[in-house]
Amino acid sequence: MKDKLVKNHGLTHPARILAIETSCDETAAAVMIDGTLRSNVVSSQLDHGQYGGVIPELASRLHQQDIVRVVDQALTEADSRLDELTAVAFTEGPGLLGALLVGASYAKGLAIGLDIPLIGVHHMQAHVLANFLTDDPPTFPFICLTVSGGHTQLILLRDYLDMELIGETIDDAAGEAFDKAAKLMDLPYPGGPHIDRLAKEGDPKAFSFPKPDVGTFSFSFSGLKTSLLYQLRDGLKEAPTFVEQNRAHIAASYQAHIVHILLEKLFLAADTYEVSTLAIAGGVSANSELRKRFVEGCEARGWKAHIPPFAYCTDNAAMIAQVGHLKYVAGETTPLTTVPFTRGGV
Ligand code: KG4
Ligand code: ZN
Fold first, then answer.
1. For residue 57, what is the enclosing H or E element?
2. Which residue, 41, 122, 192, 275, is the most exposed by fewest CB within 10 angstroms?
3. What span, in angstroms and rounded, lies between the C-alpha atoms of 23 and 194?
4. How large is the average pLDDT for residues 45-67?
5. Measuring from atom 21 of ligand 1, which residue has the nearest CA?
6. Axis crossing angle, helix 97-114 with helix 56-77, rounded to the nearest 10
């Protein structure tokens, strides 16, 4: 998949970075030249759909199968040869270990063979900095709500690589909450986009869900899924067609509830830290209701709202190239002995 290439304002510096992303079920590669994204190739592993979730072993095998082609395509689309690269960046974690090892080993092989620096990139930092892959990037300081399949984080940024985690989920991630609800309603994996689509035809007030009682900037979504499970079970006792009849209403109510919780905490964090520039990032930032409410909420408060272009919300290597470029400029390289990690903040 080739998408619109974006000029990266304010971050120009001579460097030709190849970036590789293999943390979950997307094999992706991108090339950034002098701070401008030149190619962004994403190959999504569709095979997991039939199992209702990502199978780690299968993900590793598919990365191994796809990575050569994806990297070649990224280089070709960027009119770049391997011997022209200045550094190779890769996702070091968090993610699935076997999947990360494929990208890490490939990147290390290239770094050794080409005798260029290796740059390990934190996947969650990359999601946040995808906000700089636009013509109108945020200014510092700003707070970013990062919502993906594995994480829900509130992050205060004082500079590109100066990030402070101010809150996160204590159990399920927001994306996981969408995916689990979709599974309960027999929708395909990943469920987020299906709930988003169905919600457009439903009543967001038709069903109600509990509000978790957790710390000020913490999130909890596991109770939400359990509540849905019970409401579906009770409904199905009354009518076997309950799910079919109510799918759109459930999707709309469930989505509205998640969006409300996410934005309530994000806006409270902005008030508390006296920050008036806000951003969202990660796969769930592709959600149309979240995007709309986020922009409306910021406008009402006179705050500046930033959302990465759609293609850089879900997993991609453009965002890895962005961090790779910044780290290269800052002289931050990674030893060849590095080992990918599966968990961790920002
Ligand atoms: O960032 P991402 O691509 O991968 C991880 O790093 O986890 O996020 C994937 C998550 C999945 O849970 C998926 O259901 C969710 O993002 N997602 C959405 C939408 N598009 C993707 N959730 C809600 N609405 C969407 N439109
Ligand atoms: Zn991600």
1. helix 56-77
2. 275
3. 23
4. 93
5. 283
6. 30
